Amino acid sequence: PAAFAGRLKSGEKSIANGHQIVSVLFADLCGFTALSRKTTPADLVSMLNGIFVAFDTIVEKHGIEKIKTIGDCYMMVGGLPNHRDDHAHVVAEAALEMVDALADLNKKNATELAMRIGIHSGPVVAGVIGKIKFTYDLWGDTVNVASRMESSGLPGRIHLSEQTKATLDSHFSLEERGMVECKGL
User: Fold this and answer.
1) 102-111 exposure pattern, b = at least 16 Cβ within 10 A, e = fewer
2) What distance in Å separates the CA atoms of residue 70 and residue 13, rounded to the nearest whole number?
3) Which residues pair with 44 in a beta bridge?
4) Fewest Cβ atoms closer than 10 Å to its Cβ: which of 10, 60, 142, 151?
5) What predicted TM-score, i.e. pTM, was given to this entire model?
């Protein structure tokens, strides 16, 4: 984020902040590895770039923060670097728009990609690490649980933790899945 870049330019060496409540989202494309086996490298990177640019546009629209991409996984957070009370709401809105954006891109590209999305709300530590290539990143159980929400979710669906559900208003229509075992939790 720009605020952190300024701090680094002014000579600050270590930047870390604790945040009591944010909402972290992981979105992972299903079927992308299989698609990569039958797609040229140039077409594959172009397709992935198109998807992530669409997601970046959604992130900018909602004033939330993209953290990184990890292969074909996209990570973002609401409520950082500046706190906002509606962090879960804007992340959930962004998640719904991501599902729609992928559907539109599937039509355009004649693909059938789906994604699993997981969201969890709670405390994190955020900071900048690195020397050669600085990285703004997040750490803590909230990040781990958000990742588990994604990996235990269903393709084409948004999987929320109880903590995120509790922060959302009646604007969203939620459906109970029952008890779902999440690896590592």
Assistant:
1) beebeeeeeb
2) 25
3) none
4) 10
5) 0.91
Amino acid at 118: G
| Helical packing angle, 87-109 and 41-62, nearest 10° | 150
Q: Are strands 65-70 and 15-30 parallel, antiparallel or unpaired?
A: unpaired
Q: How many whole angstroms from its chain centre is CA 100?
A: 15
C-alpha distances (whole Å) from 64 to each of 55, 163, 179 are 11, 19, 30
Structure tokens at 99: 């599902």
How far apart are alpha carbons 23 and 164 in whole angstroms? Answer: 7
Mention every residue, 6+ apart, whose C-beta is less than 8 A from residue 162: none
Q: Which of 119, 105, 128 is nearest to 47 (CA)?
A: 105
**Nearest in space to 124 (alpha carbons), one of 16, 3, 20:** 20
pLDDT digits (tens, 9 = 90+) for 45-101: 999 999 999 999 999 999 999 999 999 999 999 999 889 999 999 999 999 999 999
Using DSSP's 3-state secondary structure scheme, residue 158 falls into strand
Q: How far is CA 150 from CA 24, 26, 83, 159, in A?
A: 11, 6, 24, 6
In tens, the pLDDT along 16-35 reads 788 899 999 999 999 888 88
